[in-house]
Specification:
By secondary structure, the protein is α/β, with parallel strands linked by helices. Strand 11 and strand 12 form a beta hairpin. Strands 6-9-10-3-11-12 form a 6-stranded mixed β-sheet, sandwiched between helices. Strands 2-1-4-5 form a 4-stranded antiparallel β-sheet, covered by helices on one side. A two-stranded antiparallel sheet has the order 7-8. The two termini are 34 Å apart. Helix 4 crosses helix 5. It folds into 2 domains: 167 residues, Rossmann fold (3-Layer(aba) Sandwich), CATH 3.40.50.300; 76 residues, no CATH class. The relative contact order is 0.18. It has 8 helices and 12 strands. 32% of the residues lie in helices and 27% in strands. The radius of gyration is 19 Å and the shape is globular.
């Protein structure tokens, strides 16, 4: 069995009297896609925000490949090889697609002292990434993000996370606002990323998308893990929906 890439132990988070997470244990193995499911308010986004460094846990520990780590901010998470695509991933709308893909990590050409961005390289990479995701429209990488639809903007956010060679890619509702072809492109990317050595966490309300691509399903309900090792090949969408809602199967 593959080793754990990430292991979160006893993760709790409270906002005053409100408990968002209550002692959650969660892990992702090497070369695995984990579907993280739960109703609104189940704690999925809070758990992912802790892993990505945008929120600090009240208590709990995080391990990467068995070594205890501290994730105090997004810089720590990125340095550990964790890239996260949130539902509200911020894009700079007045900048081009290519500039948004490389934002803060632009390649430089010529002597470093001149700090000249390699625009041609950025345009080429951004264009290739969009096609990999499934954007078949011929959108120049120089197009400002303000000209894009909601689905196209989401694709740019995904492209940004895909390019950098991260060990763990977290996708929070990545297929929201995407058409059928764009959605299939994202799912194809996820399979390809796993097969090339990455691990992924996939959060989605559309369970049909989850069943198409994940290796294992974890379900949260009211801040607690209620199912940790659901095999999508050995269960049904209806059974998982009942785990999410807490409604028992009728016999």
């Amino acid at each position: 069995m593959a080793e754990d890439l990430v292991r979160m132990v006893g993760i709790a988070k409270s906002y005053g009297p409100v408990t968002a997470l209550a002692g959650v244990d969660f892990s992702v193995r090497e070369n695995e896609i984990v579907g993280l499911l739960g109703d609104n308010g189940a704690g999925k986004s809070t758990l992912i925000k802790i892993l990505s460094g945008t929120v600090t846990a009240t208590t709990g520990e995080i391990y990467m490949r068995g070594k205890k780590v501290q994730i105090r901010n997004t810089t720590d998470a990125i340095a550990l090889g964790i890239e996260t695509i949130h539902q509200d991933s911020a894009l700079v709308t007045q900048l081009s697609i290519a500039r948004n893909v490389f934002l803060g990590r632009e390649p430089i050409k010529g002597p470093a002292i001149f700090n000249r961005m390699d625009q041609r390289a950025m345009n080429a990479v951004a264009g290739t990434l969009l096609k990999r995701i499934g954007i078949t429209k011929d959108i120049p990488a120089t197009t400002p993000v303000s000209y894009l639809s909601g689905g196209e903007r989401q694709a740019v956010s995904i492209a940004r996370a895909l390019h950098f060679d991260s060990d763990l890619i977290v996708l929070d509702e990545p297929t929201n606002n995407l058409g059928v072809e764009e959605t299939q492109g994202v799912l194809r990317f996820m399979r390809g990323a796993r097969d090339s050595g990455h691990s992924l966490i996939f959060i989605a309300h559309n369970i049909h998308h989850v069943f198409q691509v994940v290796d294992r399903i974890v379900v949260l309900r009211r801040g607690k893990v209620v199912a940790n090792d659901v095999d999508p090949k050995q269960t049904t969408i209806e059974e998982v929906e009942r785990i999410i809602t807490g409604i028992p199967l009728a016999h």
